[in-house]
Automatic annotation (TrEMBL):
It comes from the Eukaryota. Residues 39-134 form the Cyanovirin-N domain. Pfam families: CVNH. Keywords: Signal. The keyword Cell membrane does not apply. Residues 1-21 form the signal peptide. This is Cyanovirin-N domain-containing protein. The keyword Coiled coil does not apply.
Length: 153
């Protein structure tokens, strides 16, 4: 009788652990894709000029924190100019009309000057990039809304 009870208990506990493991993996994947890049990355800046104007650029740790990778993300894939205010918007192309930079001392935030809809006034606004930009330490990619940046030099 005891071996049958122990076997049933082992099967029951194994099922619980499998379901909990799947739930933890799903929760971690979901959290990764919703934002939180800032906890894994160093030296994050918004490039203000040149071919990569409007790109988020930085150095981010892999999953184990043992190696760092240079990553870049085109913020035109993530942000839009909403009547003069910087805001989230997939393929919003905000960097084409706004002048943005990293907020001094807090590279998690972006500060932008954007023209309003009538293009007769420039508005300054800020946004927390950590809200929707994620970093995947396994693939060494930074992204938003399913758009992945590039790993580079």
């Amino acid at each position: 009788m005891y071996p049958r009870i122990l076997l049933s208990l082992a099967i029951f506990l194994g099922g619980i652990l499998s379901v909990q493991g799947l739930a933890i993996k799903a929760r971690n994947a979901s959290a990764t894709l919703e934002g939180g890049y800032y906890a894994h990355c160093l030296s994050i800046t918004v490039v203000e000029h040149g071919d990569y104007k409007g790109w988020l650029s930085g150095v981010c740790a892999d999953t184990y924190g043992s190696r760092y990778h240079n990553v870049q993300l085109n913020l035109n894939d993530c942000l839009m100019n909403l009547n003069g205010f910087i805001n989230w918007g997939e393929n919003g192309n905000a960097m084409k009309s706004c002048n943005c930079n990293s907020k001094k001392g807090q590279t998690q935030f972006i500060k932008c000057e954007c023209p309003n809809g009538a293009h007769d006034m420039w508005i300054t606004s800020e946004l927390d990039l950590n809200t929707n930009i994620y970093y995947d330490g396994d693939t060494h990619t930074i992204g938003c809304f399913g758009h992945e940046g590039v790993e580079g030099a």
